[in-house]
Write a structure and sequence with these properties.
This protein is mainly beta and about 120 residues long. Helix content is about 0%, strand content about 60%. The strands form two sheets. Strands 2, 4, 5, 6, 9, 10 and 11 form a seven-stranded mixed sheet that branches.
């Protein structure tokens, strides 16, 4: 069993910053990809950023230069540093990992954390 615990969401003014965290726990042998997605009301869930184990991160065009994804493999944790936030960044943010544990390689999702950018 693998659990993901997200934290760091909240309300911030335009131009502000937030850092999201997602810690994975449970029966994990290896985590390959760690990613953040987001979903605004009435829209489909979209990829924000992803970082593979030992590889380079990739970002959605809408967040390039403002968001940074990084991982701490020793803690099985992925972070999303969000700077210069815009109103259009408002969404529920979900982390996802692709991991191998007691179960075969599969994806796991967090419960989501709300980010609201508003003045």
């Amino acid at each position: 069993q693998v659990q993901l615990m997200e934290s760091g969401g909240g309300l911030v003014q335009p131009g502000g910053s937030l850092r999201l965290s997602c810690a994975a726990s449970g029966s994990i042998l290896s985590i390959y990809v760690m990613a953040w997605y987001r979903q605004a009301p009435g829209t489909e869930r979209e990829l924000v950023a992803a970082v593979p184990s030992g590889g380079s991160a990739n970002y959605a065009d809408s967040v390039k230069g403002r968001f940074t994804i990084f991982r701490d493999n020793a803690k099985n944790t992925v972070y999303l540093q969000m700077n210069s936030l815009k109103v259009e960044d408002t969404a529920v943010y979900y982390c996802k990992i692709t991991a191998h544990g007691l179960a075969p390689l599969r994806e796991y999702w967090g419960q989501g954390t709300q980010v609201t950018v508003s003045s």
